[in-house]
Amino acid sequence: MLERPGYTAIDLRPLAGGEGTSAYSVSDTEFVVGESGSTPARWNREGDPSALAVLDGYSGGRACDVNKTGVIAGILHDGEQLRPVRWDPAGAVERLEMPADAVSGAVNRINDRGSMLGGVMEPGYRWHAIRWTPEGHLVELEPLTAGGETQAHDLNELDEVAGTAKDDSGVRTAVRWNRSGEISRLPSPRRATACCVNDQGVVAADGVSWNRDGQATLLAGGQAFRAGQTLRLTNDGATIGWGATTDGQQIGVRWDRSGEPTVLPPLPSDTSSTCFDIDDAGVVVGESAGGTTVRPVWWDEDATPRRLPSPAGLDAIVAQHVTMSGNIIIGYGYDPAEAVYRGIAWYRS
């Protein structure tokens, strides 16, 4: 019988004693990025932190995403005002352009080309989806109607975007944008939010996916469960999310490209599971819960849950992201001595 690989847990230590840490993204080049306290930070394979530069006039920020070249996208903040920025691999920070009337902005995705995705807020708390080129220039994503609100959720390597927009009646609907920023509605059956898009142009939302031509595939559970939220999509067309079982328990699910589901069960003695990310080989990461206990898990192709270990001094809780190769998983746990939450990285043994 083939022996399954395991993972080694690494504590993502704080910049200053007693601070909490959060890991938001990880690249296959083994950099983890996030924040320590309120300072944007990145960690090496040993869990040693280094602070990322903060522009004058800003009190802190967070590193939200990192690509394979080591370029990092994130935000700086001063009170309630947010500024989208990026850091080069050496850690130098650069402002990203915003429209002249924008009062705040954020970036939360960067692809391997260096294109970035986020949004800006105009007076009146109206948010609009924005994409930035690798050079840092704005590409405004069209609304459905003049002045209509838009929100972007995912970006593929072709600079295509999935998200949501308000129509003429003010109702939100799932949409996609092409590389030029032109918008199109996703056809019936529509959902309010398109949450992910892969490099084949497949878009997924709650309970449905669409191919590039707009053909829909329903993501259902049959008699086993009622389909709920969709979270991630691989380039092979596998989709993960969660559903509700007939007795009301939340359960993680992986659908293949034809829409056939595989339940991702909790660990023995637990009652519910939730999944958050999937790699190119179909490895899924998430959490298993029962009573007051929550534990991080990963599921392989056979959908057997396997618990991830805790670093010394931490109680691991959840696994939230995995690299496309499956070599690195990130999440967080609790430090009972300092009474703070800390980021954790798991490296494949």
What does this entry look like structurally?
- Helix content is 0%, strand content 52%.
- It contains no helices and 32 strands.
- The protein has strands at residues 7-11, 21-26, 32-36, 39-43, 49-51, 60-66, 72-78, 81-87, 93-95, 104-110, 116-122, 126-132, 138-140, 150-155, 161-166, 172-177, 183-185, 194-197, 203-205, 208-210, 216-218, 225-233, 239-245, 250-255, 261-264, 272-278, 284-290, 293-299, 305-307, 315-322, 328-335, 340-348.
- Strand 2 and strand 3 (32-36) form a beta hairpin.
- The two termini are 18 Å apart.
Secondary-structure topology with pairs:
Elements: E1 7-11, E2 21-26, E3 32-36, E4 39-43, E5 49-51, E6 60-66, E7 72-78, E8 81-87, E9 93-95, E10 104-110, E11 116-122, E12 126-132, E13 138-140, E14 150-155, E15 161-166, E16 172-177, E17 183-185, E18 194-197, E19 203-205, E20 208-210, E21 216-218, E22 225-233, E23 239-245, E24 250-255, E25 261-264, E26 272-278, E27 284-290, E28 293-299, E29 305-307, E30 315-322, E31 328-335, E32 340-348
Antiparallel strand pairs: 1-32, 2-3, 3-4, 4-5, 6-7, 7-8, 8-9, 10-11, 11-12, 12-13, 14-15, 15-16, 16-17, 18-19, 19-20, 20-21, 22-23, 23-24, 24-25, 26-27, 27-28, 28-29, 30-31, 31-32
